[in-house]
Amino acid sequence: MNKIFLGLTLFILFVLGSVYGILFTKPGNNIVASYIEDTVNEQQKDVKLKVNDFTLTFNTINFDAVISDNSIINISGDLQLLAKKADLKYDINIKDLSKLQALIKQKLNGSFSTSGTFKGDASLAVVDGIASIAKGEAKYNVNLENFEPSNIDFTMNNVKIDELLYTVDQAKFAKGDLSIVAKIKNAKIGQLDGTITSSVKNGKVINEIANKQFNQNINVPITFKSNTNAVLSKNLITSKTDFISSLATLNTVKSIVELPSGKITSDYLLKVPNLSKLESIIATKLNGSLSTSGDVVINKGIIKADGKTDIFDSLSKYSIKLANGKAEYIKANISDAKIEKLLYLINQPKMATGKINIDANIKSADVTNLDGLITTTITNGKVINSVVNKEFKQKLKKTITFKGDINTTLAKTQAISKANILSSLANIDVNKAVFDIKTATLNSDYLVKVSDLSKLYDITQTKMRGKMDLNGDIKSSANSLLVRGNSKLLGGALDFILKDDNFNANVNGVQVKQLTHMMYYPEVFDSTSKLKLDYNLLSKKGKLTGNLIQGHFLQNDFSSLINQFAKFNLTREIYDTVDINSDINNLVLKTIVKMKSKNTQIDVTKSILDLEKTFVDANVKAQIRKLNLDFDIKGNTKSPKIKLNTKDLFKNKINDKINKKLGDKLKDKLGDEGAKDLLNNFKSLF
Predict the structure, then answer these.
(1) pTM for the predicted model, two decimal places
(2) Per DSSP, what are the bridge partners of residue 76?
(3) Chain segment 87-107, per-residue pLDDT in tens
(4) Other Cβ atoms within 10 Å of 225 Cβ, number
């Protein structure tokens, strides 16, 4: 037994001696230093650690090392291992943080230095020091209980934001001065107690870098500042924040962060006093201001916000849920929004007033799987004539009012709408308009009902009467537009197609007498029409061709004039076809008309009709049996003046008299040929 005890004692002494020889002697210190070097340098190849001195005794320690020849670490002082007590000084100076990436597995830039003291034992120790980072200074005092932080005093003044961004390997898209003061009495989660305040001064966005980094086109100066006051209590951080920029302000009165779950609950008030300043950021010109407030909850990548806003001078509420950055649902109620404010906001002329109410319940806002319903109601709508006249070169005088209802169903990638718009001019019904968000295409039917065409005078500057219904469909995409329509009109039909800039229309069976009556034009002719119009909206040029079928003249000034001079009832003549050929340039028509009946032939070889000026200038040549007539029609289309060119008429009458009075007598004296030659020479005098 004594031999076993003696052997065990010798073994323990040998182990202690070996440990002492390794840890507390110069050779042992060198072995430890080499081990530290080898361990660090073998794990990676980018950083080289060189231990210049490692001295460890029962009472002292000195560690002096160089990292990649330009950074130093020095720790020295009193160290009592058995008592777990230390009184140390440290000095760390890293010249190039990027060289530590292989060690810390994080890309950092710039330099970092800190120095201070470590005093105390395992139960209580104090770390007191200063640090320099991002061209700013920091002071810290940390109490450690069982080597865990319990009390922290931290002050950082005027750290440069651009340098701090560079330090954490981010682009220098902003600059300014950041200051932080933290006084934490207890840093243990669940027992937190303390305050943290931070502020940013002289903040400014560096547009050139921000544009490149975030693919923006910011061209206005953006400055900012902020203040945050946070209180730590148990497992909560409660803060108040004021962020003020040249574009907007964001205020929170009570933001709560729950630790360790990371859940954030906060109120908010966002104000944008001048939306036009956002144009270069959102690529859309907006006007006016925006104010919104509410509450938001952020938890595990899910954001829920409930708020209200005064947008469009309305009383509006909304509820939004975002999951992983994508909208999951949106609920909104916009009440009594002003149309003029909406137009002003989207940078459009204030061409109308009225109110809009929108109730949106979008159960799924995923653009690939939409689900929801949007109801829109327009009330008390009124067109502002002075603005419309100026912007669109119109001549509106009478008041135009409107109202409407639009119901939109969201399904998958489509917004499917049904609309009914009632106005003092016309009513528009859309049974099914389908807009596909994925393909940006629109397919819609439409029905336009004009119960009184006279109400369109201010728009068309053409006096009309009667009524008209027009229905068709619309197909639109990013690169093309197709509008088709048809109408049962005046006993016939109108069909048209608008494809991009080309307008093509066919008029079949429309009664000309009814058309001229509708247009308040003189009722000169009656027939059935068959016309074709091809017109380019961009060049404003086109052609109108076709025929008037089974037509006849009506009793009017023109037919009365023919009857007076030709002693012929023109209204009894039937024209199987009347050929019409017009060249259109803007609103001016140059037309050729050819018409022939059993006893007459009428040609319009020169005709100009200006629809904008309601002016006509035409020359009509008529052959009534053997009588030739020449007319000029000129003036306002409602009541043009008809002028008969009498020179040829009188010449014909004189020739007839000569033939009757002298013809037979000359034939007796001179013979047929001689009489004919003499009469022709005599007529030429006229």
Answers:
(1) 0.76
(2) 62, 89
(3) 999 999 988 888 888 777 888
(4) 16
